[in-house]
Amino acid sequence: MLKGLENIAASADIPMLVCGDFSSVPGSAPHALLAIGKVDPLHPDLAVDPLGILRPTTKLTHTLPL
Fold it and tell me: Any idea which UniProt keywords this protein has (predicted)?
């Protein structure tokens, strides 16, 4: 979702609001991703990834000013 919004933001100068029920608490990996734009590769939330969808952690970034 964030990568799609980055593409939209790059092509148009429009205000953007991201909202939803993300059920994330401060300190969690999803909260870090939304709040600061990246997740520490050593974050404990990333320790269990049986489907391999969180690797590489370099893809867990965005440049949106949220």
Answer: Hydrolase
Q: How many domains does the chain have?
A: 1
List the alpha helices (DSSP H) in the chain: 2-11, 29-36
Q: Round to whole Å and give the CA distance between 14 and 23.
A: 27
Q: Summarize pLDDT for 21-34 with one digit per residue, the tens.
A: 878 899 999 899 98
Q: Is residue 66 part of a domain?
A: no
Contact 59, 2 (CB under 8 A): no
What domain range includes position 49?
A: 2-59
